[in-house]
Design goal:
Elements (H helix, E strand, L loop, with lengths): L14 H12 L3 H19 L9 E6 L4 E11 L11 E3 H7 L8 E5 L2 H32 L6 E9 L6 E5 L2 E5 L15 E9 L12 E4 L3 H11 L1 H4 L3 E9 L3 E8 L6 H6 L4 H9 L4 E6 L4 H8 L7 E6 L6 E6 L4 H5 L4 H10 L2 E6 L30
Helix pairs in contact: 2-4, 5-8, 9-11
Length: 394
């Protein structure tokens, strides 16, 4: 049957004009949005008419280019009405031949849904489905354009602040993204129009209709935001001369980064701090005054742990257990450095442990006992032997 164009008497308003405007605003193809509407209408009609999801009685065709809007039910042609007659799915031969004179019993005919009936059903059930479809289309579009930016920092504009939840709506690439309160730096406030840097910590690369686990996650608390901000401020990091080897962070309070230089003539720590602290201050400003310790990385775990505990001075680091599953150490510090090494509420020690990957036990020099010098040997795991032809079955 030929497709049905919108009749002049049907009050669809500026449906296609609005659809096109929305598509341009979101940067999404209008045909994709039309597909979401089609899906929502089909689901809504099947629900209202009590059809199973796998039944193909409902047919919806939406074509923005040709302005086709057709909502129909495929009904089976029967001879006459009987006690089992189902008007939602069946049509008697006499009525069917008014649509197509060539029809016979057993054929299926496309019967347009009455406009008023469709509007009533759509208003009741399809609205939320259409909204969800648009949201899914937007997430799919963002996944496609953001896939290359996963684990990167981007600029975002604050467009809305929810007073109750404190969730913040951001605009990135003309699309709205939600920055949840838990992903905001503790204590920070926002203003509409403000530009902030966010870290794209999660991007779905695959998209399936109705998949609930699709997400685009942005964060201001992710530790790798610190790394990306330093890359923007420090040319030596951007060109690879200086490398950030590890980052640990207590958002809103303090961060530590471990850096090393591939050029002996370049001071890795000095490059990150910058002339008159200009580079590190720019990063600190972006993360609302969060303190940052820049320390030297070392492949020697004892030296690395000593660096990680700065600004505290250490006398000795004893690797008590070097095995990867239980890496731990004892750190001996001067008595007057104990509180500084541990930090407020243990924060300095905790950040150093996260930075190095070692469990750190800090002891004042006067409290050290011979037991503190005990160590566990590294257990060498045997390498798997190569299979012989007989073992492999060859």
């Amino acid at each position: 049957m030929a497709r049905r164009k919108i009749a002049k008497g049907e009050d669809y308003g500026d449906f296609y004009e609005n659809l096109q405007a929305l598509a341009e605003e979101k940067g999404i193809d209008s045909e994709i949005l039309a597909e979401k509407i089609k899906y929502a209408i089909e689901r809504s009609l099947k629900s209202n008419l009590h059809f199973d999801d796998d039944e193909d009685f409902v047919k919806v065709e939406i074509d923005p280019k040709n302005k086709v809007f057709d909502v129909s039910i495929l009904k089976e042609v029967i001879e006459v009405e009987d006690t089992l007659y189902e008007p939602e799915k069946e049509i008697v031969l006499e009525e069917a031949r008014k649509i197509d004179p060539t029809l016979e019993v057993g054929d299926r005919v496309r019967c347009p849904i009455d406009t008023k009936m469709f509007k009533r059903i759509a208003a009741k059930n399809a609205k939320d489905l259409i909204r969800q479809g648009f949201s899914n289309a937007e997430r799919q579009h963002l996944s496609e354009i953001w896939g290359q930016y996963e684990n990167e920092a981007v600029s975002a504009v604050v467009t809305k602040i929810e007073p109750q939840t404190r969730h913040v709506t951001l605009e990135i690439n003309h699309n709205e993204v939600l920055l949840l309160k838990d992903d905001q730096i503790p204590g920070e406030t926002f203003e509409v129009g403000q530009v902030v840097k966010v870290f794209i910590s999660g991007v779905s690369k695959e998209y399936k209709e109705g998949e609930k686990n699709q997400y685009l996650k942005v964060s201001r608390t992710d530790k790798w935001l610190i790394k990306r901000l330093f890359e923007l401020e420090c040319p030596e990091i951007y060109d690879g001369t200086v490398e950030i080897k590890a980052v640990s962070r207590a958002p809103g309070s303090r961060s530590k980064i471990a850096v090393m230089s591939s050029d002996p003539n370049v001071d890795a720590v000095g490059a990150c701090i910058g002339p008159q602290r200009s580079r590190i201050n720019a990063v600190i400003k972006e993360i609302r005054g969060e303190k940052i310790d820049v320390v030297l990385y070392s492949d020697d775990p004892e030296e690395f742990i000593m660096q990680a505990l700065k600004p505290a001075e250490t006398l000795r680091v004893i690797i008590s257990d070097p095995n990867p599953e239980k890496r731990s150490c004892k750190v001996i510090v001067p008595d007057n450095q104990l509180s500084l090494a541990i930090g407020n509420k243990g924060q300095n020690a905790w950040l150093a442990a996260k930075l190095t990957g070692y469990k750190i036990d800090i002891k004042a020099q006067s409290a050290v006992t011979p037991k503190d010098y005990e160590t566990v040997p590294l257990i060498e795991k045997p390498k798997p032997e190569a299979e012989t032809p007989e073992q492999s079955g060859q």
